[in-house]
Write a structure and sequence with these properties.
It holds the Pfam family Glyco_transf_4. By secondary structure, the chain is α/β, with parallel strands linked by helices. It has 14 helices and 13 strands. The radius of gyration is 22 Å and the shape is globular.
Amino acid sequence: MRIAQIAPLYECVPPQRYGATERIVHYLTEALVERGHEVTLFASGDSQTHATLIPCCARALWHDRDVTDTLVHHVAQLERVAARAHEFDVMHFHTEPLHLPLACRLNVASLTTLHGVIRPQDLGVLLDLSRDAVLVALSQAQREGAPHANWLSTIGHGLPFDLFRPSAVHDGYLLWMGRMMPGKGPDAAIEIARRSGKPLKMAAAVHSGERAWFEDRMRPLLRRHASCVEYLGEVGGELRTMLLSRAEALLMPITWDEPFGLVMIEALASGTPVIANRRGAVPEVLRNGVSGFIVDGLEAAVDAVARLPSLSRDSCRAEFERRFTAERMCDDYLAAYDTLIARRGAMHTAPAWVGSCLSQASEASRTRLAS
C-alpha cells in the first residue's frame, strides 16, 4: 500500500524531547515501513525515518529562530501534499485542522487523526462544515466533543515493544512529566508529593504561551519546595527512559479532559503505575487497582500514593504489552485504511443512479445555500 503520513512541523519526527503527536507519527510510520508498505512522510527536514521523507521546512519550526509565522509553513506543506496526492492509496493527516477542507476535495482516500481536545465552539465548527472528512479518535472521551462527526474508528496510541525497559524496583520518587501548563496539574503534583512525604521529580517543557504562567505560579512553588522537588526541565533520550522506569509512580492530576495521555502508557511500558484524575480518557487507559489508581482530587491521590505497594509493576507492563504496543496500533490503522479504501471503491463502482442521486442532492444543497 502507498501511504502518506502528514505530520505537524512544530517538532521533527521523532522529536528530540517533547512532542507527543510527532512521536506517534514516528512509531506508526516505522511500523508501516517494517510491514513492507511504501510510506512517504511529509515532515520537517531534520526528521529521521526509514520512509521517504518530503521535507516541508528546513527544521522543526519551534526550534528555528528565523521562523516567526508557523502558519505559512503549514499552508506550504498542504500545497506539497495536494500536488502529490495522486501518488498514494491513502493519506493520513496528523496536522492542525487547517487541512480538513482540502482533505475532503482530494481524489484519494484520506483520514485524519485528531490529537487534541475537541471543543464544540472551536474545532466543532469546522467539523460541522467538513462533514466528509474521515476522522479517527484517540479515545471515546475525545469523541464526545463532536459526537456527530464522521468518525471511522477509535485508535489509541501504541509504543514499540522494546522502547522502554521495565523495572521490577523503583527509587522511591514520584514523577510528573509532560507540558508545563495549568490543565496538566503540575502544582497539584507538588502538593500530592508534599502531603505524601515523597520526593518529586518534574520533567517538563515550558512553551512560550505558558511562560508567564510558569514564572508567576510554578517558579515560586519550585523555589519554596526545592528540598523535595527536583525540576529537570525538558528531557529526552536515556534520561527520560530512566526517569520513567525508576519512578514509584507517575502523577497525572489533570484538570482538563485529556484526549489520551501518551505519558501514561510510557509509564506502563516501564512497569510504573499511574495515579491520575478521573478526566478525559484516563478511565479508558488505566485499569483502576491494576495499572494504577483513578482518583478524584488531592486527598484521594495522596491516599493512592500510600496504596502503591499493593500494585504489581509486572502487571503494569503486562497491560502495556496487551493493549498499547505499536504493533497493535499499526494493525488498527491498517484495518482503518482498508475500510476507507473499500468504501471509496464501492462508491466508484456503484450503479449510475447512485451518482445521479448524489449529484441531485449536491445541487439541492447548493440551491438551499444560495437562497
